[in-house]
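JOB MANIFEST
job_type = single_chain_structure
chain_count = 1
residues = 478
[input]
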Amino acid sequence: MSETTLLNKISSVVENIKKIPKEEKILIISHYDADGISSGSIIFQLLFDLGFLPHIRIVTQLDHEIINEIKSLNYEYIIFSDMGSGQKSLISSIERKSIFIIDHHQPESSELENEINPHYFGFDGAKDISSSGLAYLLAKEIDDKNIYLSQIAIVGALGDLQDRGEKNSLIGLNEKISQDAEKMNLLKKKLGLRLHGFESRPIIQCLANTIEPYLPGLTGNEGACLKFIKNLGIEPKRPDGNWKTLSDLSNEEIKLLVSGLIKYLISLGFSSKEAEKIIGTVYIFPNEPIDSPLYDAREFSSSINACGRMNRYSLGIAICLGDRNNALDELKQVLQNYKQKLSYYINWLFSSNNSIKILSYVQAIFGGDIVDEKMIAPLISMLYGSKPFSLEKPIIGFSKSKNFVKVSARATIDLVNKGINLGILIREAAKKCNGIGGGHNIAAGAQIPIGKEEEFLEYLNKLIKESQVIKTEVRTTN
C-alpha cells in the first residue's frame, strides 16, 4: 500500500490535464449515485478553475449505447468519473480521443496512463477511498485552496457506504481527507444517533426522515414514529405544545430512545451488532445551517443520492457546487417524492406473491417493470437484514429497463471478510448471461438481457456455493 506512489500518479495525471489546450471541450461522464455526482462535480469545478469550459453528463451505467454516443460527439477529451476501470474493454473501442479515468471500482486489465484507481496502489476502493476522494486529491494537487472540496469528497464516500471503521467511521485515505476538512473547520465528528437532523428537528421527523439506516415501520411514517416514542414513555411535546428535539430530552429519555430503537430493530430480525449501529460517528458540516439537510454529511449524501435516483442530476450537481438558494427549496420536494416512491415500492414488494426469492446462498428481489432501475439499489440496501432477508448471504435486486434488466447486489462486511467478492461474482454471472457487470467486493451491478434473471440468480447461487464461503441450508421462497 503506497500513498506516495498514488499521489505521484495523481501528479502525473494533473500535468497531462494542464497540457490540454484551453479552447478544447472536455466531457465528464459520471455515475448517477451520490459518489458519481459528487466526483463529477469536483472534477467540473477543478477544470473550470483551470480555465476550461467542461460539460458533464450523468449516466446510469457505461454500456455499448453510451460508448457509441461518445464516439459520435465532438469531444477530443473524455474523463470517466466513478466508472471506466471495470469497462476498459468497452472504452478501448473509442478512437482518436484522449481518455482519463478517475474510478475506485475493481479494475479490468492493466492500468492506463491517465487512469487513477486505488486498487493499483494497494488500497481498497470499497472502503479506503471513493471516486470523490480521488477527484478531491486531484483538485488538491492542483491547488491547496481546493481543500474546501473535502466536504464533497466526504459526501461521496458516505454515499458509497465507506464508513466501515469502528462506530461507522471513515478509514484509510477517507479519514485523511476528513482530517483536511477538520483542520479547515469544515467538519466536526462525534458519536451519536445516526438519525437525519437529530440535532435540530423534532424527534418524530428525525425518525421518519431517516433513510440510511432504514428503520422498517418507522421510516416515512410519522404516525408510527409518534406511537413508538409514546410507547417508550417519552412525551413527544414540550409544555408550550411544540415538538421536542434532542436538546429537549433528558439524559434518561435519550437512553430510553437509544435502547428502544435497538430493541425494536432486534425484534424485526436484525442482529444485536447491526441494531447497535444506530449509534455511530456523526459527521457534521458546521458551515451549513443546523436545520439544513446539508448540515449532517450523511443526510447531505442521501440528498444527492435522491437527486440522482429521481433524475434531478443538475440539481445534485448545483448543490455540490455550492448553490444554496433555489436549489434547497427544490431539494425538499425531491426528497419528499423520493421517500414516497421508496415507500410505495416497499408496500408493493410485500403485497406481491412472486417478488422475493431466497435460495441457499443468495436472496433476491424481482422488481420487474414496477421498480425503477434507479431505485432498485437503494431498495435492496434498505431492506437488507430485515425480515425475510438475512445478512448471512448477499442480496440481489432486478429491475427491468426498456432494453435490459438492471442488477444490483449487496453483501456485508462480514461476508467480504469471509471471502465474498461481488465485483468478480457479478461480472462472471453477467458474462454467463451475455451481459456486463462488475463493481466492488461489497457492492456490484450488472446489465443482463431481459428474461435472464432466473438463470443469472441460479448461476450466482452456484458460484457462491462453489466458493465455499457460506455454509447454509437450502431454503427457497417464491
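[summary]
The first strand starts at residue 26 and ends at 31.
The first helix runs from residue 3 to 18.
exit_status = 0
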